[in-house]
Write a structure and sequence with these properties.
Structural class: alpha/beta
Oligomer: single chain
Radius of gyration: 21 Å
CATH class of the largest domain: Alpha Beta
Helix content: 40-55%
CATH superfamily of the largest domain: Thiolase/Chalcone synthase
Number of strands: 5
Order of helices and strands: HEHEHEEEHHH
Shape: elongated
Strand order of the largest sheet: 2-1-3
Number of domains: 2
Strand content: 5-15%
Length: 192
C-alpha cells in the first residue's frame, strides 16, 4: 500500500448569500480558482500529472449540475486527459471526495489526484423551498413562484388539478425536469 500525502489545501472566500460579493460567481469558476491555488502551492507537480479530479457537490443542479468537476477542471486549465467526476453525499461530499482520492492512490490506481468540494451550496438567487405538505424540495432561481404555483395545483383538488398543473407548466416555462417534479407531486397525492 502506498502512503497518501495531502500536498496542498486551499479554500475559496466565504460570502453571504443572497447579498454577498461572491453571489454572481459561478461555482465552477470558484472551484477552478481553488484548483489553481492548490497547484500553485505544489510547484514540483506538473498539471499533466493529475490523473483525476473528484469534487463533491451537495446540490448538483443549475450551474452546479451535470459533471461540474469536469467543467471546473477545464476552467482551471487541466488537460483533457485528466478525468473528473462529481459526487454527492450532501454535507459530506467534500470529505467523501478526499477519501475516494486517497483510497485510489493508496490502492495503486493513481499517483496524483485533486479532490475537494464545490464551494457553493445553492445556485445564485435560489433558496430551497418545500412544496406544500408533500415534502418535495425545489431549489432553482424560480423556486418561490414555482413552489407557489405547485401549491395552488395541490390545493385545487382532483377535478381541477390538471388545469392547475397546465397553468404551472405554461406560466413558469417548466422544463422536463420540473415536469418530473410535478409528476412526483401528483403521485404523492394519489398515494394518500
Amino acid at each position: 500500500m502506498k502512503d497518501v500525502i495531502i500536498a496542498a489545501a486551499v479554500r475559496t472566500a466565504v460570502g453571504k448569500a443572497p447579498r454577498g460579493a461572491l453571489r454572481t460567481m459561478r461555482p465552477d469558476d470558484l472551484a477552478a480558482y481553488a484548483i489553481n491555488g492548490a497547484l500553485e502551492r505544489v510547484t514540483a507537480l506538473d498539471r499533466s500529472e493529475i490523473e483525476d479530479v473528484i469534487l463533491g457537490c451537495s446540490m448538483p443542479e443549475a450551474e452546479q449540475g451535470l459533471n461540474v468537476a469536469r467543467v471546473a477542471s477545464f476552467r482551471a486549465g487541466l488537460p483533457a486527459s485528466c478525468s473528473a467526476m462529481t459526487i454527492n453525499r450532501f454535507c459530506s461530499s467534500g470529505l467523501q471526495s478526499i477519501a475516494l482520492a486517497a483510497e485510489r492512490i493508496r490502492g495503486g490506481g493513481a499517483e496524483a489526484m485533486l479532490a475537494g468540494a464545490i464551494p457553493v451550496v445553492t445556485p445564485a438567487g435560489a433558496l430551497p423551498e418545500v412544496v406544500g405538505d408533500t415534502g418535495v424540495v425545489v431549489a432553482s432561481a424560480a423556486a418561490e413562484p414555482l413552489a407557489a404555483g405547485i401549491a395552488d395545483a395541490l390545493a385545487a383538488g382532483p377535478e381541477r388539478r390538471r388545469a392547475a398543473r397546465e397553468r404551472v407548466l405554461r406560466e413558469f416555462s417548466v422544463d422536463a425536469r420540473r415536469r418530473g417534479l410535478l409528476d412526483l407531486v401528483d403521485r404523492a397525492l394519489r398515494s394518500r
